[in-house]
Design a protein that fits this description.
It contains no helices and 9 strands. The protein is an all-beta fold. The strands form 2 sheets. Strands 1, 3, 6, 7 and 9 form a 5-stranded antiparallel beta sheet that branches. Strands 2-8-4-5 form a 4-stranded antiparallel beta sheet, with no helix packed on it. It starts with 5 loop residues before the first strand and ends with a strand. The relative contact order is 0.40.
Length: 133
């Protein structure tokens, strides 16, 4: 595995509703190096959420098909009502090595879910990956 780690940072605003898929990263084509391996991820929110009002993000791998389909969970959901967000405190994702390789053309998707009207405030997701396996 290469140790040239790349980091992508994504600003997180209010996605405008529950159950949204945010396509944040696409693995390059074979001619440009091919697949990538996700090695880390974290999410931070700029405001605290209270009990019963929150949101969560998970990382999913989606296919390279014309209409991409879910191909696995790279990292389980962070946040939610059982684990509210503290202002400015990052939550680190646990990466599942069974699904963290994205083949050429596959997508890394942030899956957003609301629980009772929560939404991100000045939030950011950071994703670390290496080229290849």
């Amino acid at each position: 595995m290469s140790f040239d780690v790349h980091t992508v940072t994504v600003a997180l605003g209010d996605p405008g509703g529950d159950n949204k898929q945010l396509y944040v990263l696409k693995a390059p084509p074979d001619a440009a190096g091919g697949g990538i391996t996700v090695v880390g991820a974290s999410i931070v929110n700029g405001a605290a959420t209270g009990a019963g009002t929150s949101f969560s993000f998970a990382l999913h791998r989606y296919s390279s098909a014309g209409t991409p389909a879910l191909n696995g969970t790279v990292a389980a959901a962070l946040g939610g009502t059982a684990s509210p967000w503290a202002s400015g405190v990052p939550k680190a994702a646990t990466i599942d090595s069974s699904y963290n390789f994205l083949d050429a053309g596959e997508w890394l998707v942030l899956q957003y879910n609301e629980q009772t009207n929560g939404n991100p405030t000045n939030g950011f997701a950071t994703i670390q990956y290496v080229m290849g396996r």
